[in-house]
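Note to self: keep these together.
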Amino acid sequence: SCHMKGRLGNQLFIYAALRNIGIIKNYKINYSKNLIHHGQKCLLDYYNLYPSNVINSSCITHTYHQKKVAGPLNKEGGSCYYDANILNIPDNCKIHGHFINEKYFYENREIIKDELRVKEPTNILCQNYLDNIKSNKYTIIGIHFRRGDAVRETGEEGSFNEQTSINFVEKALSVISSKENNIKLLCFIGGCRGNKAANPSVIKNTHDDDITWLKDILQSKFNKYDAIISPGTIENNVLTDYCLLSICDYNIIPNVSTFSWMAAYVNKKNDNKVYVNKDDCLSPAEKFITL
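Structure:
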């Protein structure tokens, strides 16, 4: 069983770790689809997940906590730190943590990737949209700026660095442009989990603010490229954004985001075509390229 928490990206990592343990140890798994976190309803029903088994809570006799202390993400105690002891947990155990590292599900990654792709009809609609904008002419580069709740008044989580993100995207596009002739940018933004009225002392921006920021950046910094904004971003539909990100020809992830990391990870084209910022990213997958 697992303690499901966070929004979509975090939930997918937790499921992946739990599913891997279940396969390796031949355990039944149990997870909830009822979570509402910061206003976002659980979206796990839209994925091809292995069924959750009904488990009587009285049967849970052990608990495993991924150690979590303040500090760098990849260090011991960080959300991305891999603790191999998780494979030693006994049956009837509940796991707590974020498990943001490919090593937590590496052994069965291909099975889990299939389960973490969006199912019909959303995937068909997204593929049709992508086919229409490609027009047999373009290579589509999916770029996700995770701004949203990273724009804060105070605190480490408010450390979105605009110039660092822009510089990384420019660097990645330079590399891709050396390989591809005709590219089109499909751009995504998001991550807000509140609004100014509800949290005036914490959150400085709304989703509309993020879209305005993205339009300005595309016009001022990337105007030499043919660029469009994802319809999922315009509609604030995270499922559409995830699905579209997962079928782009290339992915660029300039800053920390469990959401775009997993969308790029399940992309069937992702071998050596996902670019992540070595200075501002989650623990990269084996076949991600760090710049």
